[in-house]
Amino acid sequence: MHPYLIVGIGGSAGALNAYKALLGAMPSNTGMAFVIISHMSPTADSLLAIILSGHTRMAVMVATDAMQIEADHVYVIPPDSNLLMENFTFKVICPRSRRNNQIDLFFISLAAAMGNRAIGIVLSGYYHDGTAGCKQIKANRGNTFAQDISAEVEFMPLSAQHSGNVDFVIPLDKIPDKLKSLASALKI
């Protein structure tokens, strides 16, 4: 079943606890799909999908090329990759094109594919990845979030906020209710 909304969640340094808290607060039957875009070393043997599976009842898996995106699933970017989407299908490009732009690349493809059914969430991290992607999501009538002052590393969420392309700056525990509200409004 195709997801009603696709939620891209980008983070870097300090985002692991934010991912766990956000997924832990989400019900397992929202009709949404969640895609975690995390900065990691290209040589990393990522355990992120395994770690996150302990914090949600949704299925959590590493995205692979040509994988169908399904509702009530969580997908994690593979190491040393750029992850894109089109027609509810992932496209994995290895090796990644450059460091610390994976969130922007995914958010831009998400905006093009989903329009007003795209959501981007920028969590804790250094640099400014996610800012350009939020601009594209907004340009396509989607919605964007930035983690509030609870971010362990505030640079990425603050960069997104200062761009003027963030709709909601709220605590992590308030994001699930806001996502459900946005989904309900779109169903009308």
Automatic annotation (TrEMBL):
It is an enzyme of class 3 (hydrolase). It comes from the Bacteria. Its EC number is 3.1.1.61. One of its GO terms (cellular component) is cytoplasm. The keyword Hydrolase applies. Keywords: Chemotaxis, Hydrolase. Pfam families: CheB_methylest. Residues 3-186 form the CheB-type methylesterase domain. InterPro entries: CheB_C (IPR035909), Sig_transdc_resp-reg_Me-estase (IPR000673). This is protein-glutamate methylesterase.
